Amino acid sequence: MTGGEAVNGLGVAARGDEPRKPNLAVVGATGAVGTVMLGILSARQDVWGEVRLIASARSAGRLLSVRGRQVEVVALSEEAFEGIDIAMFDVPDEVAAQWAPIAAAKGAVVVDNSGAFRMDEDVPLVVPEVNAAAVRIRPRGIIANPNCTTLSMIVALGALHSEFGLQELVVASYQAASGAGQSGIDALREQTLKVAGTTVGEQTGDLRAVIGDNGPFAAPLVLNAVPWAGSLKDDGWSSEELKVRGESRKILGLPNLRVSATCVRIPVVTTHSLAVHAVFEREVTQERAQQILAEAPGVVLYDDPGAGEFPTPNDVVGTDPTWVGRVRRSIDDPNALDLFVCGDNLRKGAALNTAQIAELVAAELTV
Amino acid sequence: MTGGEAVNGLGVAARGDEPRKPNLAVVGATGAVGTVMLGILSARQDVWGEVRLIASARSAGRLLSVRGRQVEVVALSEEAFEGIDIAMFDVPDEVAAQWAPIAAAKGAVVVDNSGAFRMDEDVPLVVPEVNAAAVRIRPRGIIANPNCTTLSMIVALGALHSEFGLQELVVASYQAASGAGQSGIDALREQTLKVAGTTVGEQTGDLRAVIGDNGPFAAPLVLNAVPWAGSLKDDGWSSEELKVRGESRKILGLPNLRVSATCVRIPVVTTHSLAVHAVFEREVTQERAQQILAEAPGVVLYDDPGAGEFPTPNDVVGTDPTWVGRVRRSIDDPNALDLFVCGDNLRKGAALNTAQIAELVAAELTV
């Protein structure tokens, strides 16, 4: 089938009757997530009419490749949303808070990957494998995409919840540098260059003296672990930790789910990992949990430690699914499972899930 | 006071009456922990007569510095324990299993840092800040030093347990390369050299192609996280995870403590970190928990995230205490605390705790 033509069952082109393909805007097209998004749009089934690339004024005029064509980036403005049906936003919270309602007022359905709307009662928070139906109720014309840390585990947990009934989560994260955007990726590469060739004594001395600038992180990241992501909220919790709690509750539809998260950044470029302790209403078995995960859409079970099989970020980066390994029933609680989960924070954790939501909306608009 | 002399209250030397200082053997003196041990023996109050350095036959004859003197390493043999009062072992499990009973039979009290005796009912497992009195009951003449992962958190947990009554631990570890010994340190340095200067594309491609050999790890460690340490035990648990459970129970004297651990290696040279979720019998408050930790011997509370204060491995490496930050009361459970804990796995996690146990025994022998 050639572009722009629909073919009926008899092989006759029905050009005049075909529904118009929706026009898509990518807002924040030049960032770390935006870059992955253009790759994803180029690789997935093409359901789009125009794909318009929008970024800040200083990126306007740049040419980026999407769907095999060079497209010029336009500056963010009200007019930039003219004729757009669906607008995917990957921009800072304050930019999304200002511009998503403007895009919605211009008639676009907004799929927003910032934190600005996720906990808004009138904005659904959607993971297609878990709560696809929620996209249809969007009184503000905005659908929110979860935080990358929540997204890196929630597909696997949704599958287990359906069978066993989730009651409690205790989560420790191993978050990648790219969760802090392109500046995080650049900072880790720069820091790695600076420590390479130093002595073990220097590597276990003050790393600040070796690397200079911490970049966007609260401490040196290379050869270190930084138990901090986001901003300080009440009682010592970080915004990132509260997102894991609030978003898991909302996506799973469990307003009383008990959640404790400790969010830690480690020197990995891309792919978040999480050690998850999940307590269920019903008794679990390792075998049944593995079976559920092996069959769940969007999940890869990679769990044979005797054969060296467990997911690591380097196995998972660049792939779409949530990878799960180290599935164990807790020795002291027959209702609890311990897991190690990895997800590419730029793909399923951001761009891919946003694209999946946009495709759900597109299917609805064109039906 | 000059060496070898004791002075009574009148300033008169009482050379003939002074108790002999005990002779110490360091078995495994040339390893990663042994090297740190010699530094610790040189820095702490010197309670020892002879310090004899013992290693494998291939290291015999090497000269190592301890207490400001060059000492020649002797080969491990039955005769090497002649005249030794206390022998500290840091050698592989199978070497300890064979040689610790031989040293004990020669009259030495053995303080062993291998896994060979830790769960033996006739061998106390000791952390001086938590259960010092246990050193006195040692029917086999052997005292065990806990695994470095358990040791990196247990001093802090012991203090909290005394006040609140510990019931359950959910632990995720961020373990350093040096937990795998000198070969782990060397492998991480080598891998860091190899990835430095590669592109982000190469860093998020197959790292095996860049680094070649994984060293002692089950996957590439640099720019990665490896959810595996130790060997495979029943039901998918690793030996490291079972050590955290079994040893925490034994040290705290809580045979029914519920423990779930997920042990993960990350690219840090030295200092293990742990995200700990601890559930207590009694209700906790953030303020009281912080107060207990601030006052606990062997613990540093470093917990003001608004001022950028939380422990990272690079802050802690080379120091003696257990550092604790990110102290939070769980939002959904008034009886639970979430913490981030760091401890130098070669010092408190191995050599320092071994030295502290040996000093406890030395004090008893010379009284």
Automatic annotation (TrEMBL), chains A, B:
CDD domains given in the database record: ASADH_C_bac_euk_like (cd18131), VcASADH2_like_N (cd02316)
List of residues binding substrate: 175, 265
Keyword Lyase: no
Entry binding sites for NADP(+): 30-33, 58-59, 178-179, 345
Positions annotated as active site in the UniProt record: 148 (acyl-thioester intermediate), 272 (proton acceptor)
EC number(s) recorded for this UniProt protein: 1.2.1.11
Pathway membership, UniProt: Amino-acid biosynthesis; L-methionine biosynthesis via de novo pathway; L-homoserine from L-aspartate: step 2/3; Amino-acid biosynthesis; L-lysine biosynthesis via DAP pathway; (S)-tetrahydrodipicolinate from L-aspartate: step 2/4; Amino-acid biosynthesis; L-threonine biosynthesis; L-threonine from L-aspartate: step 2/5
Keywords, sorted A to Z: Amino-acid biosynthesis, Diaminopimelate biosynthesis, Lysine biosynthesis, Methionine biosynthesis, NADP, Oxidoreductase, Threonine biosynthesis
Recorded catalytic activity of this chain's protein: L-aspartate 4-semialdehyde + phosphate + NADP(+) = 4-phospho-L-aspartate + NADPH + H(+)
Keyword Nuclease assigned: no
Domain (Semialdehyde dehydrogenase NAD-binding) ranges: 23-138
Stored Pfam families: Semialdhyde_dh (PF01118), Semialdhyde_dhC (PF02774)
Entry binding sites for phosphate: 118
Protein role: Catalyzes the NADPH-dependent formation of L-aspartate-semialdehyde (L-ASA) by the reductive dephosphorylation of L-aspartyl-4-phosphate.
Subunit structure: Homodimer.
Family listed: Belongs to the aspartate-semialdehyde dehydrogenase family.
NCBIfam families to which the protein is assigned, alphabetical: asd_B, PRK14874.1
Protein name as it appears in the record: Aspartate-semialdehyde dehydrogenase
Source organism: Kitasatospora nipponensis
